[in-house]
What does this fold into?
Amino acid sequence: MNKTDMPVLNLRKGKEESLDRFHPWVFSGALTRMPEPGKDGIEEGDLVKVAAADGRIIGTGHFQIGSIAVRMLTFDQNETIDSSFYSRRLREAYTLRQTLGLPDNNTTAFRLVHGEGDFLPGLVVDIYGPTAVVQAHSPGMHFAREIIAKELTEIKELDIRSVYYKSETTLPYKAQLDARNDYIIGSFLGDTALENGLKFRVDWLRGQKTGFFVDQRDNRALVRRYSAGRSVLNMFCYTGGFSVYALDGGAREVVSVDSSAKAISLTEANVELNFPGDTRHAAEATDAFKYLDNMEAGRHDLIILDPPAFAKHRSALHNALQGYRRLNARAFEKIAPGGILFTFSCSQAVNREQFRLAVFSAAAQSRRKVRILHQLTQPADHPVNIYHPEGEYLKGLVLYVE
Ligand code: SAH
It folds into this structure.
């Protein structure tokens, strides 16, 4: 669609304020009227211009049905959204990773595009060696997937030879886009990636998210630092990232727990890949709360709690905070004196202060002496756009429990 016939959506008076501060979301309530796809000459995923009440054009974005009606791609009136736009943005994303030293000889798994944090709302790209896994969270990015895939392969330094598209579960169900998970470019080239020198099998075909949680890389390295001689419990282990680092750091024993049997076998495979035949590791497919209830007090002196997002939406906030409090209370009750607790929340709806308060209540309930050693977040390849504070989603505390 060329610039002249692009639909213009008008904001109600005063609703341009957050956009003028470069916040990339336009909520449906901010529009004078939410257009009806199919009727108003507009379809979900189309490019639209957004105008202030006085008619001033603010920028261009992807339209979709839902509480976020437009995700802004540019605040430059003259910037056209075409293949060279994606090429520029992807190159900027790569330049940042280059600044971070990613990839290198020890780390080939990292995030290249972190949605709003890379000025590409609705798009996530994780890199595993020669393979890029692309995830669209908006219909607009779904329609742009072929261009994105091609432009990824144009970043010659990355040498991406295979692009897997995985958006069956991330696109709005009602948009009926029928997005099939499949290779857009190339085919399977192997599934072993490196993170801080450790090897991981990444199953993007069947795994959660893009197959691996690349956002815990720095925090796993911190676990490695504290593991020597300790008895480690890695709760919600998924592919066993923290377990492998703990073994590498010289843990006396490591127990990995996840309710999913599939996760347990992925963990065992990754442990075997790095430490064949190592008898320090055991894994159990069971519910986290059940394991902690049955666990002998003092058994473990390093515990990692990295649960799935308890609150997917703001409406679930109260229950989520209760969940964090209950889970952490059990860990405080059972961790050995002199123990170290790594506790995380990846719920975007829960902010840092709320999470800290939930952990604080859990600590008080146990009456233990607890001190904060580190306050953790997501790594730098998951940058936060300063105009979009919602992008800071991963929160962690490292606590010393006497
Ligand atoms: N720590 C992991 C990521 C955790 S993802 C990493 O570093 O890669 C969350 C995991 O929690 C999933 O594997 C899921 O199967 C598991 N899970 C969800 N509910 C659970 C429960 N009640 N008890 C145990 N595991 C659970």
User: Anything to note?
Assistant: The mean pLDDT is 96. The longest helix spans residues 83-100. Residues 8-74 form a domain with the Archaeosine Trna-guanine Transglycosylase; Chain: A, domain 4 fold (CATH 2.30.130.10). The chain has three domains: 8-74, 83-194, 213-401.
